[in-house]
Amino acid sequence: MRGMRFRIEHYRAYEAPDSAQGYGYAPTGQVDELDAHDPLDAAATALTAEEDPPGGVETPAFDPEHGLYAFPGEDEAVRVVEIN
Predict the structure, then answer these.
(1) What domain count does the chain have?
(2) 2-12 pLDDT per residue, tens
(3) For residue 20, what are the contacts with CB-CB under 8 A and spacing of at least 6?
(4) Which domain holds residue 46?
């Protein structure tokens, strides 16, 4: 089965004491495209492109408030958008 094409927008966490979670995300300006089976696979690939998954966790968590995928406790996050 052929994978889908995704646009990956990279974000970095920052402290935001006024937010409900105590942090927010700012875009880094880095944007990539890659092929993957689904958005979760695309996020995992993008977040582990340069190193092993943090803490041995292989699947990033989805943050619905921000619409981003990230590994728990890590500063880097990505937004995954399917493209044609």
Answers:
(1) 1
(2) 679 999 999 99
(3) 65
(4) 4-83
